[in-house]
Design brief:
Layout: E1 11-21, E2 27-36, E3 44-52, E4 59-66, E5 72-79, E6 83-91, E7 95-100, E8 106-114, E9 120-128, E10 133-142
Antiparallel strand pairs: 1-2, 1-10, 2-3, 3-4, 4-5, 5-6, 6-7, 7-8, 8-9, 9-10
Length: about 140
């Protein structure tokens, strides 16, 4: 965890990439901003805003990270679109990842691979009960204030 400033240290991160769907050959560009707040009593709160091409309103997600251990953590996602999901995460020297499983509406995972520059490569996949897949690929970097 000590290598990682994303999620585990207060700050702002911005990123961009593409979102593709199994139901369409097209990919949409997205832009994201994460605000990571101070660690209070062993928990970390993060607010994520996602702007997507051709979508009027931004999507907001709140993450709560807790039960933080050297190689694992628990994560809760509160989303306007998905409701509340609980998941498990893992940490090693080169990556941060988490997954949400056993929910009737959705299962999926996200990985953040640390680059030497301090940026992260993002890869995420989610699948709905109808077996529709959403695939997210992008890059995230620390915003200099």
């Amino acid at each position: 965890m000590s290598n990682h400033t994303f999620l585990f240290k207060p700050g702002q991160w911005i990123g961009e990439g593409k979102i593709s769907f199994s139901t369409s050959p097209d990919a949409l560009r997205f832009y994201t901003k994460w605000i990571i707040e101070e660690n209070h009593s062993g928990t970390i709160h993060c607010r994520q805003r996602v702007e997507m091409e051709d979508r009027e309103e931004d999507i907001y997600n709140d993450f709560l990270i807790y039960n933080i251990e050297p190689t694992s953590f628990s994560i809760q996602l509160n989303s306007e679109l998905l409701g509340c999901l609980e998941g498990k995460g893992g940490i090693d020297t080169k990556s941060i990842a988490w997954e949400f499983r056993y929910f009737p509406e959705l299962e999926g995972f996200e990985t953040y691979e640390l680059l030497e520059s301090g940026d992260y490569i993002i890869h995420a996949e989610y699948m709905s009960t109808e077996k529709y897949r959403t695939i997210i690929d992008g890059r995230l970097w620390k915003k200099n204030l």
